[in-house]
Amino acid sequence: MCTALCIGVIYDQSIKTTQADEKRLLLYSPPDYGSAENRIGGGARHRDQVADGKGLDAAASAFNPFIGGGGGVQYSKTPRFTSIRRPTSQPWRLKSEYLQVLAPEHTGLTSNRQPNLYWYVKPGLENYQSFRLSPMNQVGWAFEITIPPAPAGGIRSLSLREHNIQLQPNTEYRWQVLLEPFSNQTAAATNSTGYIVYIPHILKSGDISNSELIHVAAKKGLWYDAVDAVSKLVQTEQRGNKWHQHRAELLRQGNLQQAAKYDAQYRN
After folding, report:
1. Residue 142 contacts residue 175 (beta carbons within 8 Å)
2. Which of 82, 110, 147, 154 is the Cys-Cys partner for 192 at CB 3.0 to 4.6 Å?
3. Any bridge partners for residue 174, and if so which?
């Protein structure tokens, strides 16, 4: 099992992008879950909260949550949030500008069984990070890994493929990134949490280029696919700064203002 920060190559990177792809307006269409009560609320998006951590460190159940099929889609009524765990009674809260998972305000969708998941860390932080993943119906975290500090910050990622993790179809998962405080710090740890569901057969990418996939995925409500496609263009294309702007626009539509601001600084 890989313990380093990894990015799996999922789509063909050899297909060249065009100026038309670069100039197209990127619009994300949130998926329609069928009824308002099953939709993840967005009003508490990145709300700073105090969390008691109950259940988070409990032992995972014996079954493997990453293999096998799932029933109908089960959606949580819990919004994505940034929470604060306070080790003391000090009424201090770390602002969420330090950390943001690149997840939408609702449960985000992916057509990839082993997606890459991305988050933003404010440059200059030298804290260790923890990545966690678990199905919503399970107590505790089914997968957890510690990631070395990355003082450069910015957009970070982790590949589920490189860690041999496969999401069950039509099953909601929560994923979380946590910034660990140093041993001599009295400040609380901060974490940011998102939600994801793998929907098979919703998108046939084939030989489609990443520049086209961004728009196709965004139109179909596949948030995580769109973020992944544009992030790969940022990393591989000679015109990376232009794709930083595209990703910034997508992140603004997800109300991820701090991450969008980071990308927006890259200009041609």
Report:
1. no
2. 82
3. 134, 195
Residue 233 phi/psi, 5-degree rounding, is -70, -35
The band of 150, judged by pLDDT with boundaries at 50, 70 and 90, is: confident
What's the N-to-C CA distance of the chain in angstroms?
39
CATH architecture of 29-205: Sandwich (2.60)
Tell me the C-alpha to C-alpha distance, in Å, between residue 112 and each of 11, 50, 159, 235, 238: 11, 33, 11, 20, 26
Are the C-beta atoms of 138 and 248 separated by less than 8 Å?
A: no
Element housing 216 (H / E): helix 210-219
Phi/psi at 175 (5° precision): -135, 150
- What 3-state DSSP class applies to 121? strand
Please, are residues 63 and 135 in contact by the beta-carbon 8 Å criterion?
A: no
Q: 129 CB contacts (<8 Å, ≥6 apart)?
A: 121, 146, 147, 149, 150, 156, 177, 178, 179, 180
Torsion of CA 197, 201, 204, 205, to 10 degrees: 30
- Angle (nearest 5°) at CA 208 between 205 and 213: 75
Assigned token pair, 119:
């988050």
E strands in the chain:
48-50, 81-85, 99-101, 108-110, 116-121, 129-135, 143-147, 154-159, 172-179, 189-198
169-210 pLDDT, tens digit per residue, is 999 999 999 988 877 665 667 899 999 999 998 887 677 888
Predicted pLDDT at 141: 94
Q: What is the pLDDT of residue 42?
A: 27
Q: How far apart, in whole angstroms, are the C-alpha atoms of residue 168 and residue 137?
A: 13
